[in-house]
Amino acid sequence: MVSGTPAGAHDQLAALAARGVSWPTIPGQDQTALRPAAVLVLLGVLDDAPARHPSAAVPADLDVLLVARSDELTHHPGQVAFPGGRLDPDDGGPVAAALREAREETGLDPAGVEVLGTLAPLPLPVSRHLVTPVLAWWATPSTVGVVDQRESADVFRAPVADLIDPARRGVVTSRRPPTFRTPAFEVSGRVVWGFTAIVLDTLLDALGWAEGWDRGRTLSRP
Predict the structure, then answer these.
(1) Contacts of 42 (CB under 8 A, 6+ apart)
(2) Which of 31, 46, 151, 176 has its CA 20 to 30 A from that of 140?
(3) Three-class SS of residue 9?
């Protein structure tokens, strides 16, 4: 189904949240005692700058919110990610945790976020987390930016049509054993890889938005 408007994309995302997705396996040596975490996969019209890549599947103004981690962090320094983090005892679940973390990291107003649903948790053995993606629509966008420079280097929107662009896609090999390849995207002068790219790749395929791309093309990770 072609989605030529943000409303059409919203309905497809809501349907995906209802039916769920199947995640690929992320290799790891120890998948026991995983700590619960959540990320906010937030899509919507974030600004008036259209995507450069023409797509018949998604509108040019559809974006996803991403955060570039600070280079000073011990875990995943400089990596591009969805807003999110570990569940706190007071969160009451992954939705509350994802919204809280997104507010703390980007300053967004959770009141403008329409939660479409939670997707199946994805084990991330390398950091010993069990991560629940919270799929959401930015019904009323608010101003966002870096809240704490010790945590984040940048907060930015990635046009979904540009993520679909085969010329911006490739694979990256992890450096930490056990080594494995993940999908990767070039966007806004950055390479998105690892967990975030796995989620994006799976969602694009499940939604029928993806275009064919060269899975033998290797991108340089930061």
Answers:
(1) 64, 65, 82, 83, 102, 108, 113, 136, 137, 138
(2) 151
(3) helix
Q: What are phi and psi of 202, to 5 degrees?
A: -65, -40
**Spatial distance between the Cα atoms of 12 and 20, rounded to a whole number of angstroms:** 12
Residues 6+ apart with CB under 8 A from 110: 99, 100, 102, 103
**What is the edge-to-edge ordering of all strands in the sheet holding 181-187?**
169-173, 181-187, 190-192
Q: How far apart are alpha carbons 102 and 63 in whole angstroms?
A: 16
Between CA 130 and CA 124 the distance in angstroms is 6
| DSSP string over 116-166 | EEEPPPEEETTTTEEEEEEEEEESS------S-TTTEEEEEEEEHHHHH-G
Q: Are 152 and 198 in contact (CB under 8 A)?
A: no
At 20 the pLDDT is 96
Return the structure tokens found at 81.
């990610």
Interacting residues of 131 by C-beta distance below 8 A, sequence separation 6+? 37, 38, 39, 84, 121, 122, 123, 124, 195
The structure tokens 């969805």 sit at 82
Beta-carbon count within 10 A of 117 CB: 17
Q: What is the three-class DSSP state of 176?
A: coil
- Over the stretch 106-145, which tens digit does the pLDDT of each residue have? 999 999 999 999 999 998 877 788 999 999 999 998 989 8
